[in-house]
Amino acid sequence: MNILHFLSWILLVAEICIALPIAYLCILSISALITTQKRKRQVHHTEKKTPQTNFAILIPAHNEEMILSKLLDSLAQLDYPQELYTTYVIADNCTDTTASLAQQFDRVQVYERFNEKERGKGYALNWIWQQLADKQHDAYVVLDADSVVVPTFLSAMDNELAQGALALQACNTVLNITESPSTVLRWIALTLINHVRPLGRNGIGSTSTLTGNGMCLSHTILTRYPWQAFGIAEDYQYYLTLAQNGERVRYVPEAVVRSQMPITFAQMRTQDVRWEAAAPQQSSWQIASQLLKTGLQTRSFIRIEAMLELLTPPLSFMVASCSLAFIASLLLRSPLEIILSIALLSGLVGYIATALYLLRAPKAVYKALLHAPGFIVWKLWVYFVLSRSRKHTGEWVRTVRTS
């Protein structure tokens, strides 16, 4: 009995630990729902303003001849004055026809870059900003080559910049949502990370993360904090720089950018490994400690909340932990632990349901949830095994996709 009592206490402590990030996610879910209703009312009562921002649209492209045309076609359909934006394609270490393909499009300027030592998106962005130093651009939008944008993309960004925002993040979501169960599950995961959480965080007065695709940085913010992000997760690295300085990234759900996702688990491998291996140079706990310290010293809610976001475990880890806790509580026949584990699982279900409710998910999405257990096992494998291999953490690797 003493051993069972001891195990029961260990389980209770573990459940309390996992309850903290779940409670945080539930708060963000409620905030996201409230913020959505507020933005809907604002759209109906907001008068359309004359565009003012001069944008530079930056497209880092490494051997993207198969997919680049789709993005450039969507940019040609933008509902924004043509004289107020210029598209720049950075053909970075390309060995295909990416550069010549981009040159065939009107109002697209192509910059070719060759540097075998400094490879990757972060270096390409830093290089193009140096080339455009004498250009009169108010803000810079970064788009991945495998994306498309909605016609009102720049108008939505311009509206937020006009209200004083210095850094913005678009709604970065999936283009081929129902092509396969893996793309559906990827859409749900990205909706939670790239829509529900940033919307909820902005709703409580905090900052969104930068996801690279669809981020918009004003000339002012880049002058204040020059780009020094060169890792695999260059976008998250720069976001942490802004968060550590108390700067706010504003999420813009009306500015939608959709990306083509791998349709099989095998094709997802390189993308997942890159995402999970893309950790900051310092450990998360070191950065969290710095954010908490400076947040308390300066009484900055943005820094403290950024610490909470940083320490929130991956969804796959939380689902697996809660499921194991539920099974353990049943084996121990402990009523308190059973109730708590059910509450934790309910919190995660509510968090996921928020995404499905906000985006009015089609029926195919609910059918794909049957594949969720396999998806979770795959993510856990990537997180705990593949991402720990050094060969995946040094250099960007192009995601394999169906042409």
Order of helices and strands: HEHEHEHEEHEHEHHEHHHHHHH
Strand order of the largest sheet: 3-2-1-4-7-6-8-5
Radius of gyration from the alpha-carbon trace, in angstroms = 22 Å
Percent helix, as a range, is 40-55%
Major pleated sheet: 8 strands, mixed
* Class computed from helices, strands and strand pairing: alpha/beta
Overall shape: it is: globular
Strand elements, count? 8
Number of helices: 15
Taking pLDDT < 50 over at least 5 consecutive residues as the criterion, the unreliable ranges are none
Which quaternary structure do these chains form?
A: single chain
Strand content: 5-15%
Q: Mean pLDDT across all residues, rounded? A: 87
Distance between the termini: 61 Å
Primary descriptors:
8 strands; globular
Structure description:
There is one protein chain. Helix content is 55%, strand content 13%. The chain is built from 15 helices and eight strands. The chain has an eight-stranded mixed beta sheet with strand order 3-2-1-4-7-6-8-5, with helices on both faces.
